[in-house]
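Below is how a single chain appears once it has passed through the pipeline. First comes the sequence as given, then the structure the pipeline wrote out for it. We keep one example in the README because the format questions we get most often are answered faster by looking than by reading.
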Amino acid sequence: MSIQCQSDANLDEETSFFILELMLGKTMEANTDFPETNLQKNLFLSLGYYNFNQNKEWAARLNYPKTGLSLGYTDFGNSEKVGQAISLLPFIEFSILKKRIPNLNVHVGFGVSYTNTQFNEIDNPFNRAITTDFNWSFKSFLYYDLYKKNKITYRFGLGYLHHSNGHTRLPNQGLNSLLASISAKFDSNKKQVHNNEMHNFKSKSQNYLTWRVGLGQNVLSEEFNTKKEVYSFAMNAGKIINNTFKFGGGFYYRFYEHYYDYINNDGSLIEEQLPHFKDNPFGYATNFGLFATSELLLGHVGFEFDIGLNIYKPFYKIDWQLNQGYTFENNNGETFVVLGELDWYYEIKRTVSSRMGLKYYLWSTNKAPKHNLFVGAHINANLGQADFTELSIGYTYRFNYKESTE
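Resulting structure:
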């Protein structure tokens, strides 16, 4: 089976565009007694490409999505207590429901942000959303093209923005915002040139094997709030379909420095609940499991999402109790510690892991190289709650193509 791909522009060109966007909305409360905020204001500038290029099979397979880079400024609506952020977000934008609603697009961006106002126990104790200067940033929007004239398309959008630090310092409730936008997209070409050339891509698949090593950082709890390392190793294998969609499964191993130090230093919960951990601090500070992985291959860039099953993570019982608990003082000034309850939600988060992030491949995946190296930046999570932020390097080996004979 083959696919015939035809663009609305010259297949030898990569038409560029520029977007000026104003977004208005509301910063959601991150915690009880969160500072009051007024109207949130954002200004985003984006540079992107239509990817009309016959050498990019991934673009044809995905119906020629737009890709690019956005630079954004955000005023959260309370300059003193919540502040402002500057974001840098690589993005991808797809046309959806093209036959029924031809002007509708979904936009996803994932990158980093700098936030100038953070939690402070004395000066800003009620903003528990952000505790670090640099954070992860995520943008998800729906856009509708309202009006087109010559090179300019006017668009209306609705969406969501998120900022958080990936569990590298606590508290880390995250800043979440609901927004509406109006934007103008300026195309580099006044008219797109229709091209009758058809490009045939045969259906094909390819087996692969990947390994990676990672160095992550996280904190244990608000009491143990200094960053320490998480060391990881993983291998997975699977199929690459049509040089665009990558699916597989494998195993991971992790070692948490915070877990090891808490055991080695005779943390209070070790003495009270799990004294046998002291017989093997290294072993009880480790975690291993199985995972399924999916990835979109976009030339040099890969967008990856993994879902996993923790087979062994014994220290998470203490991790949960420390992070879900709280302290309080009675009328006599005595301090009491209440530990997190080991309920059904604990069982789910102890069991399910996830991982999301970006890879950069040394050699473009367009030509399906047999050997490839990559670097990656990911957030690892317990279910959906950040566990640690990780940088990784890895290697992928591709086996021979299997092309459809139809």
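Confidence is low (pLDDT under 50) at residues 6-12, 191-198.

See the next section for the split statistics.
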